[in-house]
Amino acid sequence: MSFWEYVGSRHAQLLTDTFQHASAVFQCMVIATVLGVGIAIATYRSEWAGALATMTTATILTIPSLAMIGLLIPVVGLGVAPTVVALTLYGLLPVVRNAIVGLRGVDPALVDAAKGIGMSRTARLFRVELPLAWPPILTGIRVATQMLMGIAAIAAFASGPGLGNEIFRGIASLGSANALNQVLSGTLGIVVLALLFDAAYVLIGRLTIPRGIRA
């Protein structure tokens, strides 16, 4: 059976796995973005706190993904739970680091001007600092999403959702007629999803970042 014949015969399952893969990455990135930006807001004003946040999230990223999921299985069980926890933790570093860099890079004169017209600290954060820090934050989100696309395939090890199931089934049946087709379909699906997500982020950047800031 050729690759395209295999895809045609398995298109329903492949579409389901693709949707689950995209959904898992998207939802974990939303959680990682909220947590990462929150951590950055709490730490960016302090050198040691910012360094500690960056070092901690970087340490998490050094843990092999297979080992991370294996360690989570006894704690949260199989399926979606270890996938969500692992992907969220892995997505933190680029978001935290870029958010801290972005917030620290805001021109102090603009913050002082906002303070001078009576803005509260919270108002300055949400109306001045975060909007100006958005470009590097978005870059961090893009980088984290590309990482998670590949890492999410390992979730199949813990009966997690996504295209990793195709890859693992193919590897487990190497030598059989459709083993290569299974691995190839899962891999190409992840690549296509990564490109689509990145294109979406480019569009979001064009819609949310003023041209002057992009320049």
From TrEMBL:
Pfam families named among the record's database cross-references: BPD_transp_1
InterPro entries: ABC_transp_perm/SBD, MetI-like, MetI-like_sf
Protein name (Swiss-Prot/TrEMBL): ABC transporter permease
Family designation: Belongs to the binding-protein-dependent transport system permease family.
Membrane topology: Multi-pass membrane protein
Entry-linked PANTHER family: GLYCINE BETAINE/L-PROLINE TRANSPORT SYSTEM PERMEASE PROTEIN PROW, OSMOPROTECTANT IMPORT PERMEASE PROTEIN OSMW
Top-rank lineage group of the source organism: Bacteria
Domain ABC transmembrane type-1: 18-201
Swiss-Prot/TrEMBL GO biological process terms: glycine betaine transport; transmembrane transport
Any one of the GO CC terms: plasma membrane
Keyword terms of this UniProt record: Membrane, Transmembrane, Transmembrane helix, Transport
Compartment(s) where it occurs, according to its Swiss-Prot or TrEMBL record: Cell membrane; Membrane
Spans through the membrane: 24-44, 51-73, 143-163, 183-204
